[in-house]
Design a protein that fits this description.
It contains two helices and ten strands; from the N terminus they run E-H-E-E-E-E-H-E-E-E-E-E. It is globular. Strands 2-3-4-1-5-8-7-6 form an eight-stranded mixed β-sheet. The protein has a two-stranded antiparallel sheet with strand order 9-10. Helices cover 16% and strands 46% of the residues.
Length: 133
């Protein structure tokens, strides 16, 4: 048995939207969530939750399960497989680190993300302008 838990915390809850502008009109302007970052190249925008550092991530391309922050997406995926799960999507690079999609033995998909390359840096409007370690 592992001595420390694999999952560190919920990193984000992915919310599929048809386009970022309509998603932001609803979640930011109508529901009041602060825009943290926007990456039009990825079709994603991150919104804050006031009592948490987890994010709501609006996404125009993916319909994913909750995203779990881990120290290493590659290592966490290997541990899930060793524990009886399976890989749905191999670990791959994302702008801020690595991501993998796995499933537990019951078929529940889990998105594993590490922030090994840093976090987004944004301009005053929330547009991503870089990554800081």
């Amino acid at each position: 048995m592992r001595s420390t838990p694999l999952f560190q915390k919920i990193d984000a809850v992915i919310v599929p939207v048809p386009d970022l502008d309509s998603g932001l009109r609803f979640y930011q302007h109508r529901l009041g969530h602060e825009l943290l970052w926007r990456n039009d190249q990825l079709g994603q925008a991150g919104l804050g939750l006031p009592d948490s550092d987890a994010e709501i991530v609006l996404d125009t391309r993916l319909n994913l399960a909750p995203t779990w922050l881990v120290r290493s997406a590659d290592e966490a995926a290997s541990e899930i497989v060793a524990a009886g799960g399976r890989v749905v999507a191999d670990p791959s690079d994302i702008p801020v680190g690595r991501v993998a999609i796995v499933a537990d033995p019951f078929g529940n998909e889990l998105v594993l993300v590490d922030l090994s390359k840093g976090r987004y840096v944004t301009d005053p409007s929330g547009t991503v302008i870089g990554i800081a370690e």
